[in-house]
Amino acid sequence: MLSLIFLTTVASLVTAVHVPTRTFPPTFCHGQDCPRYTVVSSTADYEERLYEPAKWTSASVTGTYSAAVSAGFGKLFQYISGNNKDQAKIPMTVPVLTKIQPGQDFIVSFFVPYADQASPPEPSDPDVFTNPLPQMTAYVRHFSGYAGDADWVANANALAKSLDNATISYHRDFYYTAGYNSPFQPVDRHNEVWFIKSD
Known about the structure:
A hairpin with a 4-residue loop joins strand 1 (37-42) and strand 2. It is globular and about 50 Å long. The chain has a single domain (27-196), classed as Multidrug-efflux Transporter 1 Regulator Bmrr, Chain A (Alpha-Beta Barrel), CATH 3.20.80. The protein has 3 helices and 9 strands; from the N terminus they run H-E-E-E-H-E-E-E-E-H-E-E. It is an alpha+beta fold. 30% of the residues are buried. It starts with a helix and ends with a strand. Keywords: Signal. It holds the Pfam family SOUL. GO terms for molecular function: heme binding. InterPro entries: Reg_factor_effector_dom_sf (IPR011256), SOUL_heme-bd (IPR006917).
């Protein structure tokens, strides 16, 4: 009888400390559509994620990082507000993803909502295009607060250093920034930098 009580107590303690598996979507998507991924592994410095193939709507823009993201966001916001061949209103998604590749234009992207993934409305602006991204493994570092240009660079450098120390192969010629919050949200902000695994 005592052993049964002991086993029952142990079982309840194990249940109490069990850490549940993260469900999708993560809380930092705030109920909006965001790209599906599986966490492959996690360290104190970064998370390794396997992203499913998905379509994004993108704009190619020039200028400094902040100016380019602002301009790209404006073009994409007009697209989801009806500046497309169907004149369709498209829900906002997260993150705002920006590809940074030295010497080339910035590519700012909105994730295409799941309802439109099969056939996104065709953009009317010649600078806006549907951008299918393949399945990919991303190494992701996150940080909080309002992110300025220097914050993105510092976190990208820190992530690169962590990956180099772990002798991980990744594309060094570009990386992504991912912002998940409206500029009017002062707290609980979530920002990410991504490097993509190379073969």
